[in-house]
Recover the amino acids of this structure.
């Protein structure tokens, strides 16, 4: 153990192809999870927005899913769906739901009441109101939700290494099982870097998506 | 269902309730990691957050911490602690795990405290100063009591996250309830995996519920009915982008 | 005058509650007039207005716009034909000024070209620069936002405008400017406007007719502002209009609307005795001096003792000039601040029209 150097750059260089493969895997697992999560969360959120009473129970259920530690959630699913991508995605998707639902509904709630009233007064149909006024105005908050969900998922993907998936998590596990610090550090650093990078990138996109929020400086 | 019976059998087997690999022992280990980490992180986070929120200096620290705290994958941090500990010959103690958990616990406590102190109504602070309160009196009598609910929210977020992440200590050669899951996978024992998962989930949810009660008991005394102050309608944008507002507990 | 909007026995009860927001209200509004609904908060004035474009559905009764029952129209289509402005403007923060103004024309599927021209025309009418087109609402001043709000409501040239405290969110100076500007524009456009406010001064200034509403939208009095100030029908109206009723009325009357007094006048080439005769005729100790119709100033009895003709005197200028378009309230202000306690009325700069005295003005208040 101690005879071995703390970090071996040559090993990293030798495994550069492997790193790229794991990067692709990591991104794929993340994107599928966020995409499916959004696909599920969006209609649920619209429903909860229209029918306020179901919002509390929906977030309650999503909140429980969110609170269950990832390893436990994968453990619950593994006996049924095996050590498969399905197991990984089911777990990852379920973590995105609370974040996405809260932000979609919160974004819609945040639309100023006077804008809503005037839009109605000018003759927007309820459908036009949703798609042309409420959702565009909710974009910053919804997108922030997508960003948080993405970053969270990137972190969680590493854990799926334990059920045979894992992207960069693979290196972590490999290093841990062989007491090989280089692999563990590589996996950890890469997944941290990926998460931070994704966060920065999505914040930048958020700014581009909402030019009106950038426009400041006029009198109130 | 067959598996369900297996799990019940696993729980009723007295072997699982005693010895160094029994449920009580694993639970104690789990709680030890979690409590030590949170007990160390809370004073650090609260003190830093209070100071920054009160003095309005070094505010960039909270922003950076908030962003990093959200982006850092907890498993990666935990995994990172292990080789570092080995390298410095700290060996197999609870400290590498506790240190990693500590780093994960500080950000939510720090940012929530900061936001809570900072968002205390400016008029309230001004009138307190106007009545002749000193800076530290304003802090002790006005800002900290009014920020209390958010401080508790921060601790709750941290605690739930820490309890969840402590599960992964088992992967990194540690103990805790996660051991059942990891060992279960290794030995292909479905009953053990599910039993462990059940224990871990229950502990996380209990932690959440416990702190929810604490939060509720702190709230009416201080924040009266004015919860809207922390959630103004169109400030959701800021709210959602900012972990300080309402805890997003990464499922570790 | 044809009736543009009629309300016939309209009642609104909210959510089955016993309290009635609007009780059996009937009202007729002529084409091209501004009717201001004014009353204490909770009197049902906003509810009344919102029933016209069906933002609130009446419980019973009939509302017609341009002769047809609003309930027979699809509410969404109906609203596109009625301009709507509210206090907080409600500009869409994610749309540029151009897109905001173009809202209703777009809903009505106008051609892009026509929308473009219309938006520019409106900017011009409202004295807003073209440079604002690509700006977002958060970049505008409060006054600009309010103007964009009104311009947006006018975009599709609706015959009817509903305005709910449209100038309520800006400071008094800007508000006065916006009110004047709107009245200017209204003179050309001749829209039928229903205007809600709780400010009696704004009501007096903006309206052709005021409806003073009590709880349940009960009309206490509906008349021209001048008449409401002159002859309030009951204590509610009297209280609501307030103690300065007389002064407010003076604000409504133009000097041109009343007969000014002739006053003592002599030509600059007159003799001393002619000047004395002019003063005696009005029992004044001074007289105005004219050259033809041109106002030179005034002289008093002491000037005539030292000079042997009016021509040799040095007429002093009047401290208070008012013009025909000023209100009696402004004239009164001039009178109380002038030494002679009169206000001289001129037109075209220095053409003498006559004088106004305190006595003459108080006759107008009493009448």
């Amino acid at each position: 153990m101690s005879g071995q150097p703390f970090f071996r750059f040559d090993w990293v260089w030798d495994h550069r192809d492997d790193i790229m493969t794991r990067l692709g895997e990591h991104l794929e697992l993340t994107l599928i999870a966020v995409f499916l999560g959004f696909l599920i969360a969006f209609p649920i959120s619209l429903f909860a927005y229209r029918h306020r009473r179901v919002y509390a129970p929906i977030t309650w259920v999503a909140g429980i899913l969110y609170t269950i530690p990832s390893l436990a959630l994968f453990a619950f699913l593994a006996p049924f769906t095996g050590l498969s991508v399905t197991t990984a995605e089911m777990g990852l998707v379920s973590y995105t739901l609370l974040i996405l639902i809260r932000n979609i509904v919160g974004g819609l709630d945040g639309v100023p009441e006077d804008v809503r009233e005037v839009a109605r007064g000018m003759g927007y149909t309820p459908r036009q109101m949703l798609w042309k006024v409420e959702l565009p105005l909710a974009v910053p908050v919804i997108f922030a939700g997508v960003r948080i969900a993405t970053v969270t998922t990137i972190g969680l993907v590493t854990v799926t290494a334990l059920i045979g998936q894992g992207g960069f998590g693979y290196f972590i596990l490999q290093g841990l099982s062989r007491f090989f610090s280089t692999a563990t550090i590589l996996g950890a650093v890469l997944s941290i870097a990926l998460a931070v990078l994704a966060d920065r990138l999505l914040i930048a996109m958020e700014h581009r998506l909402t030019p009106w929020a950038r426009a400041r400086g006029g009198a109130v | 269902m067959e598996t369900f019976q297996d799990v019940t059998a696993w729980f009723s087997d007295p072997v699982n309730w005693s010895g160094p690999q029994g449920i009580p022992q694993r639970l104690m280990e789990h709680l030890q990691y979690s409590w030590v980490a949170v007990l160390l992180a809370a004073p650090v986070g609260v003190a830093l957050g209070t100071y920054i929120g009160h003095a309005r200096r070094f505010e960039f620290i909270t922003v950076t911490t908030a962003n990093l705290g959200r982006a850092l994958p907890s498993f990666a941090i935990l995994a990172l602690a292990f080789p570092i500990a080995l390298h410095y010959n700290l060996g197999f103690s609870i400290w590498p795990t506790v240190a990693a958990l500590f780093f994960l616990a500080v950000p939510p406590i720090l940012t929530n405290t900061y936001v809570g102190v900072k968002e205390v109504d400016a008029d309230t602070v001004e009138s307190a100063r106007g009545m002749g309160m000193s800076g530290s009196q304003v802090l002790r009598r006005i800002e900290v009591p009014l920020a209390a609910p958010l401080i508790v929210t921060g601790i709750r977020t941290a605690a739930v996250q820490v309890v969840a992440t402590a599960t992964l200590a088992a992967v990194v050669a540690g103990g805790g309830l996660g051991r059942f899951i990891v060992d279960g996978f290794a030995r292909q024992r479905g009953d053990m995996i599910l039993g462990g998962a059940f224990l871990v989930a229950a502990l996380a949810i209990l932690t959440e519920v416990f702190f929810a009660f604490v939060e509720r008991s702190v709230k009416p005394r201080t924040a009266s009915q004015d919860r809207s102050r922390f959630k103004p309608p169109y400030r959701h944008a800021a709210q959602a982008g900012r972990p300080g507002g309402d805890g997003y507990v990464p499922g570790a | 005058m044809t009736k543009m909007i009629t309300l016939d026995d309209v009642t609104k009860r909210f959510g089955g509650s016993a309290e009635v927001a609007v009780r059996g209200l009937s009202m007729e509004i002529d084409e091209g007039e501004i009717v201001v609904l004014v009353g204490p908060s909770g009197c049902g004035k906003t509810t009344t207005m919102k029933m016209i474009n069906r933002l609130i559905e009446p419980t019973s009764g009939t509302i017609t716009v341009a002769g047809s029952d609003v309930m027979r129209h699809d509410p969404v289509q109906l609203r596109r034909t009625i301009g709507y402005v509210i206090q907080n403007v409600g500009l869409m923060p994610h749309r540029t000024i151009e897109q905001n103004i173009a809202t209703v024309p777009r809903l009505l599927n106008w051609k892009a070209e026509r929308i473009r021209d219309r938006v520019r025309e409106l900017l011009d009418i409202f004295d807003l620069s073209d440079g604002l087109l690509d700006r977002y609402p958060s970049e505008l001043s409060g006054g600009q936002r309010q103007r964009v709000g009104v311009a947006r409501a006018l975009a599709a040239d609706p015959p009817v405008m509903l305005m709910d405290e449209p100038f309520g969110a800006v400071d008094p100076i800007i508000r006065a400017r916006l009110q004047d500007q709107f009245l200017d524009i209204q003179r050309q456009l001749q829209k039928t406007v229903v205007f809600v406010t709780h400010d009696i001064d704004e009501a007096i200034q903006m309206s052709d007719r005021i409806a003073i509403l009590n709880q349940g939208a009960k009309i206490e009095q509906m008349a021209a502002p001048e008449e409401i100030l002159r002859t309030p029908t009951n204590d509610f109206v009297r209280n609501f209009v307030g103690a300065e009723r007389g002064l407010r009325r003076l604000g409504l009357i133009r000097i041109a609307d009343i007969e000014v007094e002739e006053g003592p006048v002599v030509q600059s080439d007159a003799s001393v005795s002619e000047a004395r005769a002019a003063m005696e005729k009005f029992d004044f100790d001074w007289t105005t001096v004219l050259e033809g119709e041109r106002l030179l100033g005034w002289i008093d009895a002491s000037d005539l003792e030292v000079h042997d003709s009016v021509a040799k005197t040095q007429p002093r200028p009047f401290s208070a000039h008012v013009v025909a378009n000023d209100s009696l309230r402004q004239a009164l202000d001039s009178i109380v601040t002038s030494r002679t306690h009169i206000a001289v009325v001129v037109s075209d700069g220095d053409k003498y029209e006559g004088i106004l005295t305190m006595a003459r003005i108080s006759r107008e208040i009493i009448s």
Summary: The mean pLDDT of chain A is 88. Chain A touches chain C through 28 residues (CB under 8 Å).
